Amino acid sequence: MTFSIIIPVYNVEAYLDECLNSVLRQNYGKTEYEIILVDDGSADVSGKLCDEYAAKHENIVSVHQENQGLSGARNTGIRCAKGNYLVFLDSDDIFYKDSLVHLQECLDGEPDVIVCNSMKFEGNADNLEKYNYLSNDSGLMFDVLNEYQGLLNHKDFTMTAWSLVVRREFLVYNNLFFEPGILHEDDLWSHMIMTRAGSMSYNRNFLCCYRVNREASIMQVLSYRHTESYLIILDKLDLQKERAGISRLERAVTFRKMALIYITLCYNAADYIDTEKKDSLCAVIKRYSYLLKYEEFKFSVVFRLFQKIFGVYGSEMMIRKFKNR
Description:
By secondary structure, the protein is an alpha/beta fold. Helices cover about 45% and strands about 15% of the residues. The protein has two domains: about 5-215, Spore Coat Polysaccharide Biosynthesis Protein SpsA, Chain A, CATH 3.90.550; about 220-325. Strands 1, 2, 3, 4, 5, 6, 7, 8 and 9 form a nine-stranded mixed beta sheet that branches.
């Protein structure tokens, strides 16, 4: 079997039919892929829908578990998978037409990871726009770290679980499961994938169509948990860059990744800087402030200037004023 398509499911009864039908309509042999539906403790009828689809289609597996979050659901799917390659699709998103056929064309040489283009849409899937776009040629490449460094500098590309297709044996052998209990888990996971992969290829065709601004999505609800997750990711990447045997290039791309996350952290933390979290947030922001020298986008220049003039607390208050204006 070539592909295992892992779809975490949580309270998405309004979107699941569209998602699954976009996969089942693929012009690709049904015996060459499986769909693994992981119902992560849904409170609506999503779990029942999973079972109904599994009863009708031999290549669909329905798994139920108590709520563990997106990382936990994806990890369950990985452990159930039988395909040579793992494809991640969120249950409110859809596949682009002929996605699997185009993925098949990227498998020569069995790359550890395939980096894919994707689309985005809001509301109606007829209104698709480019979300991630790469013009890189396909073909097997072994200089993965240099390619990853280029991707981190690519202003039109954001690395997510559904923009990467990963060889299952490579992932399992290196224990590259998703970090449980956090948001923005893709930031940490994708970095670990790209710094461990020995080979890669690009899929210039579109794979996933990403739904934006969905009501009730946890990513649309602002909370301190977002900021807390970025703190955890920064700490874990900090440990990675100091591990024994790390190459200079991997250390450099890890600094670059940390810098991107640090800027997002500073932006999010401004909403909580005048609360009981003030002291702990200021300490972390100050500790990682050196990362700004690894990032040259305009936000990093502004943050550096703010911190130099106003200090950590003052700079966060300035950012909050800017956000609320």
